[in-house]
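[step 3/7] fold_predict: job queued, chain A
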Amino acid sequence: MESGNKLRESSRKKIEELLIEGNHKRSDRSQSRSRNNSSKTNINTSETINDEVNVLQTKRWLPANSKIEDRLTKIENKIDTLSKEIQEFKSELKTLLSDKINLSLSVKESFIADVVKNVSKLLIKVSIYPTKDECCGAVEGYLLLNHASFFSNFTEDDWISFYNENIHKQLTKQVRSVRGTLSSKSREAIFSIFESHLPPINTNAGLSEVAKWKRNLRLKVVMKACLRR
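[step 4/7] structure written:
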């Protein structure tokens, strides 16, 4: 009997131990499931919150993006307008500069023509056949007295270059013209006074005939008489 009680007690303890161990395991599994469920719930909740945040951010960004796009469009339109205005301004400026250049050239040409005209009239009184140096000196003298501020802007080298490029050719041409006019008037005066004393010559005579006429003794006598007077 006593042996039976021991076995029963031993068996009971073992069962109790097994049951306790089983309860612990179930409790652990239950807790594990609870933790897993809680984790899943937390994950789902977090995802839901993130989705809601994204939706809210999207809702907030949509009108902001629309405003930004509107501003960008306005800026682009202003840039296009400014670009067109700049192109128009460049075109107008180019026209103005072209007009100014043309005006400057016109003023320059008019100024040089006036200088050449006045200097040639003075120079013929100094020399009938002036050299290049005489021509240049005559222009310098005229400018110093009449356009000193203009002449003072040149260095020596710059002035010589300007004179050679812009004045000398026109001046020599004008001097020849003045000399031709003077010679014509001189011939008219001589013929009107000494016509009866001069050998006859055709006004359309060639160079050889004119040369022969100049060697005529009667002409030499008359010219000497003119010089003495």
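[step 5/7] annotate
Helices lie at 2-126, 132-146, 148-151, 156-166, 168-194, 207-214, 217-228.
The chain has seven helices and no strands.
exit 0
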